[in-house]
Automatic annotation (TrEMBL), chain A:
InterPro entries: Gaa1 (IPR007246). This is Glycosylphosphatidylinositol anchor attachment 1 protein. GO terms for cellular component: GPI-anchor transamidase complex. It comes from Erythranthe guttata (Yellow monkey flower). GO terms for biological process: attachment of GPI anchor to protein. The chain crosses the membrane at residues 20-48, 441-463, 495-513, 525-547, 559-581, 587-606, 618-636, 666-685. The lineage of its organism: Eukaryota, Viridiplantae, Streptophyta, Embryophyta, Tracheophyta.
From TrEMBL, chain B:
InterPro entries: PIG-T (IPR007245). The keyword Signal applies. One of its GO terms (biological process) is attachment of GPI anchor to protein. Residues 1-22 form the signal peptide. It comes from Erythranthe guttata (Yellow monkey flower). The chain crosses the membrane at residues 564-585, 641-659. This is GPI transamidase component PIG-T.
Length: 688, 660
């Protein structure tokens, strides 16, 4: 660090001088950086850019739609037949697949059924990051437990069959809803058009997935079989529980893109038909922005639909966002008067809406749980989105609705069909602030970088303080100083290491808890906490695991070293997580950084005014209180959905969904956030 | 004057002489024939197969001058000593399930998408590769295609037994799956015909209609035994040119009835007579014999229907369909136990001219469904796995026959086996591990060597040669499904090795699957049909062969703007490294210290602050530097600097405002 020879004051190198300067001013620097980080996050809706179609080959909307009224009315007839079928019989669930297959065959398409069993959502501790894995298939099953996907394929005339575009329509074969039947009708009308057109270069796969066991499960089961040597390849015919035709598993090359078409049952609040786009896949992966762009472009400019992406509704009414928005608008107008070319101000309504969308986008990415069946495609590097269309119609206008949505899908298929290369031009890392605005990684990582930047500086400054303040007091010869400090550093690091080891056991605990039969979520949650506590105490009891020197000879600066190592560990954890799932790291940094930076021992006597000391302590306690994951989760949930709906077991359910979806957020929460929180508590309760 | 007369006479004599030699040559069998075969397909499409054959007698007896046979091909053969060669340009995929996989046309004319070329040379072993390279360049120029990309040793391979029964080791095989096929390739191909597309059957080739079809494959097959010294009587060079298209007749008939069509509705043109240079010019309409009427579902009735075709063969008032003209003759295929025979209706276009063009029409009377005969196993190939690191190629074969176990049952039931040959070329950047070859029969993994009759593997060498696997499997006849898997790692390419549009992925060429025990041929009753090339071609015994799909492997592609980033970054690192190195080398420690001591006093306010800070950091009491006379000088220098900066900034601001 600093020079060991104080006698000769050689001039340090500039880079050293800058870092020394920063380290010595770490308090100011960290306050400035953290504030700037939070501000940068808040003004992201301002910085978001308008989307544009980056890949020239896509050319959306350059061809006029070919889907005619006849196709739409065919689709409507198909819809009616399905609804009739549903009204008549709901026995085995084989009727709808057979009907679809019959229609596909009439269109000269190839058809096959894909049977699958649901995969139980088990916690596999070692299966994280191992990609799409085959789970354990239930042993005892009956025919009705099979889901049957119907797969229709159109081979592109003159195409070389290397690539395919997938259309997915999930429906529940046991009880089909109007919306699902409509989505089948849309897919049918598009499919019947595509079976006639001459411009196809990629094959078209229509997957009518049976969402009996969940929409995601059906699609992921089909994809798994598509990418492995599946049962259908190995056995020609399985006599049991299958409809009449089943000649193996049919494939059609590498998938270029996938569209999941869903029709929501009703929408009352909008004056137009509206289209909702879901894009988040597992671990915050997003499809290429171009795919969203073409859907948005064609829906808005081609068919006049209203496009939305998910947003957190309760944020729309929040007073502080509005005030912030007004402030920013004011700033923008002031800037505009200074220089008319500075146009960064946006209206309050836009800002609030953008922030709500951004928050939802950030949260969904951070959660790492796919928001629909499109997530299954992302596991195989296929760009996919779910389009949920809420019609605003009376029953007479259904054919018209089919026509509009069919044309939209035809346009998207045609665009993707134009594509020579796979999607790669546009962004993969972005946050949406509205369907036509996005914040790319280059913009939103500024906030994270600003938040994280103080961590290494504060760690260094604490470390150097702790090691330098010692000789001042005791006047030990400078020769023995480095060895002494390094020993202390090691004991703090040991503590941190043991806490992290403990957190690994906490991570694995739900695996055992979930094996308890018939347990309520709150019971599970309680037992998780209790077991964690027990294991912590056990760990504490191990001699030497927690720095024992504190008991024999309480040292003033031990907490500083501990805090320094904690901060360093948090920094490493956050940086690692930012590579895996940026949004998680962003939210994690928001919670973790202020807590880690401000925490000081409660009994620390800094010879300050009592009011200030009280404020500091209260602030510490509050931040540490908020830093506990279940508390912040329950508080946020309560703030957004109302506290009446919050139950104690909700956190367990949430965590369970995280590990069931192999989300890295779970790992982050248990192995980075939790140990840092524990270490902060330790610092807080440190005896001085 | 007399001189002029004499010369005129000479000219006449010469002219007469040349004409007479031409007649002599014609007697010496330089031949050209053209034929068109039309066949309705079960999925409401029509197969049109043009077949042109020109042959030149051997050079020894005939000389080097030809008047029909294309000179470029003759020179090609002589220059590169080609024994046999096949070049095909294909767009679209042959649908083996619907269009059949057991007849001569599908076995020899269903080709993989893009360009496929194989050639067998008659040169010493060490010259084969050179001949191949030269040949690719020559063909590339001849056919306006990028066949020259087959020149690299990474793109072609030697096959042992997949294309010829006898392995000479001089056969080279290469494909370009991504080659786009269009009329620029057809025009040079047509130039090889004596009448081009001006007369004869080739005048039907209206470009928009033949490129609108579902499958389009133009093929050129060359066979010569000129260089074969062992043979005494050589037959010269035979050039066979075929164009196979599958068209969809536009009709407005209902969905049930097969579409009716005529030549002009299919091609948009009519035949106005034959190419006058051709020996024969025939149109055939082929009906597969297992046409059965949809309405009559009982077996007996359909039998009756089948007989009806036979009964009514002469006339054109068939119960199932009606042809607009009565055929010149009807050729029946001999039915054998392997398959049911089909019927060919022959028409000759010789009798038609511009005023009465040949216009053949087919009209279906009743809804008809039938199925084409399938190859014993239907092969499909696909990729397994996901991600950019590794994957697997799987070839899955499914039995298409419910009935034909007795086909290969020429030998007795126990030893009944099905020999399947697979030939697979894999580019080097897909690194196949051949030891991971796994064979599944009916879903059960087999000990690999049990079912392999022979295998020949040449692993790929990075940037030198592709991996080649030729394998002959011996499967039990009762097998329902068979599957082969091969695992591979995806390699990395050098940045300049990426093709354009690298983000599309990389192609693995089609695998060839052939069934050595099965021959796809027709046998006709007439002896006459031996004389017509297309018919003799149909009777030729060739093994059943099919191609699998082309696969697209996504490889990791760099961001191609990355070189710029890399250059910037490395430059920065170099600058930092060399800067600090030079700095360290230049400095002398003793000097530094002396300088510092001397300068210790003269510190500006900033350095004062810094020293205070560092002192604070190090926990020392800060000692204010001793004031000295030079400090004022130093500060005045600083003020000068500040003044300069202010001046420049002022000029800049003035500049800005002045120009706005």
């Amino acid at each position: 660090m600093a020079e060991t020879e104080p006698a000769v004051k050689s001039k340090p190198r500039p880079i050293m001088r800058i870092s020394l300067f920063l380290v010595s001013h770490s308090l100011l620097f960290s306050v400035v950086c953290c504030t700037a980080g939070i501000v940068a996050l808040l003004i992201l809706p301002l910085l978001a850019k308008n989307t544009y179609i980056s890949e020239n080959a896509l050319m959306p909307g350059s061809a006029s739609p070919m889907l005619s009224n006849d196709d739409a009315s065919d689709g409507y007839r198909f819809y009616n037949r399905i609804m009739d079928l549903d009204a008549k019989t709901t026995i085995a669930g084989n009727e709808i697949p057979e009907l679809i297959a019959e229609h596909i065959k009439e269109l000269d398409g190839e058809v096959n059924y894909h049977k699958f069993l649901p995969i139980s959502n088990k916690f596999h501790p070692l299966h994280f990051f191992l990609g799409p894995d085959a789970g354990i298939i239930q042993e005892n099953f009956t025919c009705s437990s099979y889901g049957i996907n119907t797969v229709g394929i159109i081979r592109a005339p003159r195409g070389d069959g290397k690539e395919a575009i997938v259309l997915v329509t999930p429906y529940n074969s046991t009880k089909i809803t109007t919306g699902e039947a409509l989505s089948l009708g849309i897919a049918y009308s598009v499919f019947s058009l595509l079976s006639r057109v001459t411009w196809l270069a990629k094959d078209i796969i229509w997957l009518a997935s049976d969402s009996k066991h969940g929409e995601y499960a059906a699609v992921s089961a089909w994809l798994r079989d598509y990418n492995t040597l599946s049962f259908g390849d190995l056995k020609l015919q399985d006599e049991m529980c299958s409809p009449s035709i089943s000649n193996g598993f049919r494939r059609a090359g590498t998938m270029a893109a996938a569209l999941i078409i869903k029709v929501a049952d009703s929408s009352m609040e909008f004056e137009k038909d509206n289209l909702k786009i879901y894009a988040e896949a597992s671990n915050g992966q997003m499809p290429n922005l171009d795919l969203i762009n073409i859907v948005n472009y064609l829906a808005v400019h081609g068919q006049g639909l209203q496009v939305r992406v998910e947003k957190i509704w309760s944020l729309l009414d929040s007073w502080w966002l509005k005030i912030l928005g007004q402030l920013l608008e004011l700033l923008g107008s002031v800037a505009k008067t200074l220089n008319p070319q500075w146009k960064f101000g946006i209206p309050v309504a836009d800002y609030v809406e953008g922030s709500a969308t951004l928050a939802s986008s950030l949260y969904n990415q951070a959660l790492g749980v796919p928001t629909g069946p499109h997530g299954a495609f992302r596991d195989y590097q296929v760009d996919a989105i779910t389009m949920e269309i809420s019609p605003k119609f009376y029953s007479s206008q259904r054919a018209l609705f089919l026509l509009r949505v069919g044309r939209l899908i035809e346009g998207v298929v045609r665009s993707v069909n134009n594509l020579l290369e796979k999607f790669h031009q546009s962004f993969f890392l972005y946050l949406m602030t509205s369907p036509s605005r996005f914040a790319s990684v280059g913009v939103y990582m500024i906030a994270f970088a600003l938040l994280v930047a103080p961590l290494p500086l504060v760690a260094t400054s604490l470390f150097s303080d702790a090691s330098n303040s010692k000789p001042e007091k005791d006047e030990i010869s400078s020769k023995s100083l480095p060895t002494f400090t390094s020993w202390k550093w090691l004991s703090a690091a040991k503590t941190v290491l043991f806490v992290h080891l403990w957190s690994a056991t906490v991570t694995l605990l739900p695996y055992f808890i979930s094996k308890i039969p018939n347990s309520t979520p709150s019971f599970n949650f309680l037992s998780w906490i209790e077991l964690s506590l027990a294991s912590f105490l056990f760990m504490y009891a191990i001699p030497g695991s927690f720095s024992s020197s504190s008991t024999t000879q309480p040292q003033r600066n031990e907490w500083a070293l501990l805090k320094s190592v904690t901060i360093a560990a948090a920094f490493i954890g956050l940086c690692l997580m930012s590579v895996i799932n940026f949004a998680t790291a962003e939210i994690g940094a928001l919670l973790l950084v202020p807590m880690c930076l401000t925490v000081l021992p409660l009994r620390l006597d800094l010879k300050e005014k009592p009011v200030r000391a009280f404020v500091r302590r209260a602030c510490n306690v509050l931040l540490v209180f908020l830093g506990f994951p279940p508390i912040i989760f329950l508080l946020l949930k309560g703030a957004l959905d109302g506290f009446s709906s919050v139950g104690f077991g909700d956190f367990w359910n949430w965590a369970e969904s995280l590990w069931a979806w192999n989300s890295a957020t779970y790992i982050y929460m248990c192995m980075v956030h939790l140990p840092c929180w524990v270490l902060c508590i330790r610092t807080l309760l440190h005896r001085c | 004057m007399s001189r002029l007369k004499f010369s005129f006479l000479l000219f006449l004599i010469l002219l007469w002489g040349s004409e007479s030699t031409a007649e002599e040559e014609k007697e010496a069998n330089e031949e050209f024939t053209e034929a068109l075969l039309l066949r309705p397909l079960p999925d409401r499409k029509v197969l049109a197969h043009f077949h042109f054959q020109s042959s030149a007698p051997p050079t020894q007896t005939y000389g080097r001058h030809h008047y029909i046979f294309p000179k470029s091909i003759y020179q090609l053969v002589h220059k590169f000593h080609i024994r046999e060669m096949e070049l095909s340009f294909t767009q679209g995929r042959w649908n083996y399930e619907r269009w059949g996989g057991f007849d001569p046309i599908s076995s020899s004319n269903a080709k993989p998408p893009g360009v496929e070329l194989w050639a067998d040379f008659d040169v010493p072993q060490n010259q084969v590769d050179d001949s191949w390279k030269n040949l690719t360049h020559a063909l590339s120029g001849l056919f306006c295609a990028s066949i020259n990309f087959l020149e690299h040793s990474t793109s072609y391979s030697a096959t042992q037994w997949s294309f010829q029964s006898s392995s000479s080791g001089k056969l080279r095989y290469g494909t370009l799956p991504r080659e786009a096929v269009c009329t620029e390739n057809l025009t040079p191909w047509l130039k090889l015909l004596p009448c081009r597309d001006k007369a004869g059957l080739s005048s039907l080739m209206d470009r928009p209609s033949i490129y609108r079809g579902y499958y389009h494959s133009q093929r050129l097959h060359l066979k010569s035994d000129e260089f074969d010294t062992s043979k005494i009587s050589s037959s010269g060079i035979v050039l066979e040119q075929t164009l196979t298209v599958v068209l969809q007749p536009n009709t407005f008939s209902g969905k049930k009835l097969q579409p009716s069509w005529s030549l002009s509705s299919l091609f948009g043109r009519k035949v106005t007579g034959k190419c006058s240079l051709s020996n024969s010019s025939n149109v055939y309409v082929q009906f597969q014999q297992n046409l059965v009427s949809e309405e009559n579902e009982s077996r007996e009735k359909s039998e009756a229907q089948k007989n009806e075709i036979l009964i009514h063969e002469g006339s054109h008032n068939n119960p199932l369909f009606a042809l607009s003209h009565p055929p010149k003759r009807v050729i029946k295929e001999v039915e054998n136990f392997q398959k049911e025979g089909s019927i060919l209706y022959e028409y000759s276009v010789e009798d038609y001219d511009e005023y009465g063009p040949f216009e053949l029409g087919l009209r279906w009377k009743v809804p008809v469904i039938w199925s084409c005969q399938q190859a014993p196993l239907h092969a499909s190939r696909f990729l397994l796995g996901s991600g950019n690191e590794r994957g697997a190629i799987a070839i899955s074969m499914k039995s298409t026959r419910s009935n034909d176990i007795e086909i290969a049952g020429l030998d007795d039931e126990k030893a009944c086996s099905l020999r399947v040959g697979i030939f697979q070329v894999v580019p080097w950047y897909v690194k196949v591990y051949y030891h991971t070859l796994e064979v599944f029969l009916d879903g059960e993994s087999q000990a690999t060597m049990d079912n392999i009759e022979k295998i020949h593997v040449s692993p790929s060498e990075d940037k030198v040669s592709p991996g080649v696997m030729e394998i002959v499997l011996r499967l039990p006849c009762s097998v329902k499904t068979a599957a082969l898997t091969l695992e591979f790692d995806k390699g990395f390419l050098h940045i300049d090795e990426y093709p354009p549009d690298a983000n599309q992925g990389f192609d693995i060429p089609s695998a060839v699957v052939h069934f050595a025990d099965f021959v796809a041929n027709m046998s006709f009753e007439d002896n006459l049909s031996k004389e017509i090339p297309i018919l003799s071609k149909l009777q030729e015994k060739i093994p059943v062969r099919s191609y699998t799909e082309v696969l697209l492997v996504p490889l990791t592609t760099p961001d191609f703007s990355m070189p710029y980033n890399v250059i910037t970054m490395t430059c920065t690192i170099f600058a930092l490294y060399f800067g600090s190195l030079l700095n360290a080398l230049r400095r002398r420690r003793g000097e530094e210290e002396r300088l510092l001591k001397g300068k210790g006093a003269e510190k500006g306010p900033l350095s004062l602050l810094l020293s205070r800070l560092s002192a604070k950091l190090r926990g020392k009491q800060w000692e204010p530097p001793k004031p000295s006379s030079s400090s004022s000088k130093k500060s005045s220098v600083n003020y000068k600097l500040v003044a300069k900066v202010v001046l420049v900034a002022g000029i800049a601001i003035v500049w800005q405002f002045y120009y706005q």
